[in-house]
Amino acid sequence: QVQLVESGGGLVQAGESLTLSCVPSITIFAIKAMGWYRQAPGKERELVATVASNGRTNYAESVKGRFSIAKGDAQSTVYLQMNSLKPEDTAVYYCNFNSWGDGNVWGKGILVTVSA
């Protein structure tokens, strides 16, 4: 069973940057979309950014202009560049792949903490 491995999280100060990476344990074919979601304490999981197989991207309003999602050269990796981080960006970030073969696959999540 494919697993998604997230990395790059941690503790930063407001205004700093982080880059999250997500790599599957095995190559995933026929990907429809990849994305990042997040869940802050006491809140529901929400979409952060997605990138479709055709390269079309979608962002939450709260991160537009600050975050950027990109596919890796291997096509089955995805990155989230997060700039100008704010304390309200503090959350557990989850990677998601949606493919024709494996369906919807979630990573275990990685913590991003932004201090004021």
List keywords for this structure.
single chain; 4-stranded antiparallel sheet; 116 residues; mainly beta
| Overall geometric form | globular
**Average pLDDT rating:** 94
**SSE series:** EEEEEEEEEEE
Question: Rg to the nearest angstrom?
Answer: 13 Å
Low-confidence stretches: none
Share in helix = under 10%
The main sheet comes to:
7 strands, mixed
Describe the structure.
The chain has strands spanning 4-7, 10-13, 18-24, 31-39, 46-52, 57-59, 67-71, 78-82, 91-99, 103-106, 110-115. It has 116 residues and is an all-beta fold. Strands 2, 4, 5, 6, 9, 10 and 11 form a seven-stranded mixed sheet that branches. The chain has a four-stranded antiparallel sheet with strand order 1-3-8-7, with no helix packed on it. β4 and β5 (46-52) form a beta hairpin.
Q: In short, what is this structure?
A:
By secondary structure, the protein is an all-beta fold.
List the helices and strands and how they pair.
Elements: E1 4-7, E2 10-13, E3 18-24, E4 31-39, E5 46-52, E6 57-59, E7 67-71, E8 78-82, E9 91-99, E10 103-106, E11 110-115
Parallel strand pairs: 2-11
Antiparallel strand pairs: 1-3, 3-8, 4-5, 4-9, 5-6, 7-8, 9-10, 9-11
